[in-house]
């Protein structure tokens, strides 16, 4: 794709000729003049321009604390990220705080930035990231680590935290992958576990007060103040000792005023945090273009592979009235035509029926559609199907049985039967959907070839049932397979991984089984990720500080955008591990295909997600015995540890309220600036 010859100039900070000759000269100066000259030479230059509806540009000199927020992936993936958008808005609402966004730049622009000495920049005012007080990075996946290193290097920030001075920003990691930040401990200054809304405000207060006092004690004192909160982890204040066989002996503070354990943050009253109020409307195409509202946070279904469900406990529902108000305000501001009701399992909201019917009624006759991006097989019913298709627009439906056989679903605690799935999919087909997506995992603990091959039987049965129910052969389903990756703070944190060749062999057998019946097979799409990226993700997800040297080596050898198949190189990771890890007495298999025992000190044991380690171990043993665990929302407490240790509680309805009254909407006006 060729870039346009000219690029629109965004609203930005004041510029000066000095910025052209020295982009690091003054933080108030935009690097835009130098960047603009490079954009005609790169693909999709619009992603670096900024100026989106919802973007905020504030006066640098009027701000006391300045944040640069990053989602370490391309603009098209990073801009829709809900977490970054929420923090961006929460921070910018404070009069003396400034927050701007930065994303990973593609290799074509990275090369030009190095050639022309253009630093990592924010898209809002094109300021150098190095000049901010705090550089916050949100990780949804560990495969974004190499992009963090690129951003640090382009920003002109010393790669190793130990080499930074008072002139450098404090780099803070957050997001799900921050629950084990040890592989990037050398590169970050701090990590926040859990919800970020209140955490960023607390960090802001600490930075503000430290600066007002004249920055006493420099960078070390600021980090110490953050660590004393007991909810900000500062790796430099902890030492790791190892046993002769490579296992961790202990992780202990190296100074007396630092806590032994760091606790996660939990935002309890979601109604008090109705963000985003002014969602960002992208200028370039992105992976999601909708107004997304998180209808509840947390999950107690207890799927043993699911880190997100474990670390976000307890369940906290947003009230139906707040959801309705957020949707109305968000659509009026943005002009989006799709509303995504987000959570880990949206149909589990205690008032989801009234919520969907109320929104469908509210936007009847408009072009607004509703979607539940995450829908459990056993929670989808005909009423939901009818409400989701009320305006004639049917968004995609994805159901996740996760395991192919009844046995493996007991192992992973995914309590869904084959009959549940068939009944659910038939409901969708008979309500006008012609295609559904079924998501499974391969490489699960105790899995055999037979477990995986049952996926083919299930897919065939789905097509047969759909054709019978609709009388049409225009029925399709897509089978999507992901590789299992053991994650910290889950019952499977002790599990071994399968080797890539085993995963790939099972997927080959599955594809053959799907296509064995050609009349059914031609109606079934088959998408999969091979076993190699999953193994590397496994290395990063359960790694310790020694893995940081592998990440650094991969990055030096060109590793970028490892979450993208066209950029990922398995061999590069294998070679880096082989070059680095033997020096520590371990290897790639030691981190991935090795099963841990009960007493082993895990790299994240000093980071408290609220879950009791003994409870996790017992659930791991229950999984091996194929024992299912109920959802504690509706049954007595199972003592996972979260509610008492975090001083929280499950918050669920029903509230007895309805979505209405809201002003009925007959037509949505596209706001000024949203037209593209």
TrEMBL record:
Pfam families: Radical_SAM (PF04055), Radical_SAM_N2 (PF19864). Residues 285-527 form the Radical SAM core domain. Residues 1-24 are annotated as: Disordered. InterPro entries: CHP03960_rSAM, Elp3/MiaA/NifB-like_rSAM, Radical_SAM_N2, rSAM, rSAM_horseshoe, rSAM_sf. Residues 1-22 have a biased composition (Low complexity). This is TIGR03960 family B12-binding radical SAM protein. It comes from Micromonospora humida.
């Amino acid at each position: 794709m060729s870039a346009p010859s000219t690029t629109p100039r965004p609203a930005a900070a004041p510029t000066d000729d000095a910025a052209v000759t020295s982009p690091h000269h003054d933080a108030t100066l935009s690097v835009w003049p130098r960047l603009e000259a490079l954009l005609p030479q790169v693909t999709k230059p619009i992603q670096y321009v900024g100026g989106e509806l919802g973007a905020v540009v504030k006066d640098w000199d009027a701000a006391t604390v300045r944040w640069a927020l990053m989602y370490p992936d391309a603009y098209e993936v990073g801009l829709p990220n809900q977490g970054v958008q929420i923090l961006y808005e929460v921070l910018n609402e404070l009069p003396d705080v400034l927050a701007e966004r930065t994303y990973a730049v593609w290799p074509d622009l990275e090369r030009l930035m190095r050639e022309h000495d253009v630093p990592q920049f924010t898209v809002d005012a094109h300021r150098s990231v190095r000049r901010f007080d705090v550089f916050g990075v949100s990780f949804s996946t560990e495969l974004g680590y190499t992009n963090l290193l690129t951003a640090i290097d382009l920003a002109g920030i010393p790669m190793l935290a130990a080499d930074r001075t008072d002139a450098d920003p404090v780099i803070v990691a957050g997001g799900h992958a921050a629950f084990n930040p040890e592989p990037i401990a050398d590169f970050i200054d701090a990590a926040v576990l859990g919800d970020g809304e209140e955490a960023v405000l607390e960090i802001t207060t600490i930075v503000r007060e430290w600066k007002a006092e004249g920055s006493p004690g420099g960078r070390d004192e600021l980090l110490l103040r953050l660590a004393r909160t007991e909810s900000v982890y500062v790796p430099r204040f902890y030492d790791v000792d190892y046993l002769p066989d490579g296992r961790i002996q202990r992780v202990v503070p190296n100074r007396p005023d630092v806590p032994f354990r760091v606790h996660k943050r939990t935002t309890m009253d979601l109604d008090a945090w109705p963000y985003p109020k002014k969602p960002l409307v992208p200028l370039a195409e992105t992976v999601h273009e909708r107004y997304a509202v998180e209808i509840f946070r947390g999950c107690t279904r207890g799927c043993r592979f699911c880190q997100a469900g474990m670390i976000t406990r307890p369940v906290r529902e947003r009230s139906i009235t707040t959801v309705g108000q957020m949707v109305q305000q968000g659509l009026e501001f943005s002009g989006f035509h799709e509303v995504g009701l987000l959570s880990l399992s949206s149909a589990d909201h205690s008032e989801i029926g009234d919520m969907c019917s109320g929104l469908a009624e509210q936007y009847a006759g408009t072009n607004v559609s509703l979607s539940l991006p995450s829908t459990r097989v056993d929670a989808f019913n005909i009423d939901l199907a009818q409400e989701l298709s009320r305006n004639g627009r049917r968004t995609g439906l994805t159901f996740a049985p996760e395991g192919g056989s009844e046995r493996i679903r007991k192992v992973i605690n995914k309590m869904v039967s084959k009959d549940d799935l068939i009944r659910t999919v038939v409901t969708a087909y008979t309500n006008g959907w012609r295609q559904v997506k079924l998501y499974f995992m391969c490489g699960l603990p105790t899995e055999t070839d037979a477990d995986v091959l049952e996926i083919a039987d299930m897919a065939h049965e789905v097509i047969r049932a759909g054709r019978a129910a609709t009388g049409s052969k225009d029925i399709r389903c897509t089978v999507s397979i992901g590789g299992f990756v053991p994650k910290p703070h889950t019952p499977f944190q002790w599990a071994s991984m399968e080797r890539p060749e085993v995963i790939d062999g099972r997927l080959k057998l599955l594809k053959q089984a799907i296509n064995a019946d050609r009349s059914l097979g031609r109606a079934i799409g088959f998408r999969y990720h091979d076993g190699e990226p999953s193994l590397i993700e496994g290395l990063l997800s359960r790694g310790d500080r020694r893995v940081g040297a592998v990440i650094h080596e991969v990055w030096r050898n060109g590793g970028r955008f490892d979450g993208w198949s066209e950029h990922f190189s398995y061999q590069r990771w294998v070679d880096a591990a082989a070059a680095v890890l033997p020096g520590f007495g371990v290897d790639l298999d030691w981190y991935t295909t090795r099963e841990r025992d009960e007493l082993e000190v895990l790299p994240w044991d000093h980071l408290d997600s609220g879950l009791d380690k003994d409870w996790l171990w017992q659930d791991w043993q229950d999984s091996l015995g194929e024992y299912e665990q109920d959802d504690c929302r509706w049954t007595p407490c199972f003592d996972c540890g979260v509610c008492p240790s975090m001083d929280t509680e499950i918050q669920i309805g029903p509230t007895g309220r309805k979505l209405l009254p809201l002003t009925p909407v007959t037509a949505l006006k596209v706001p000024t600036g949203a037209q593209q």
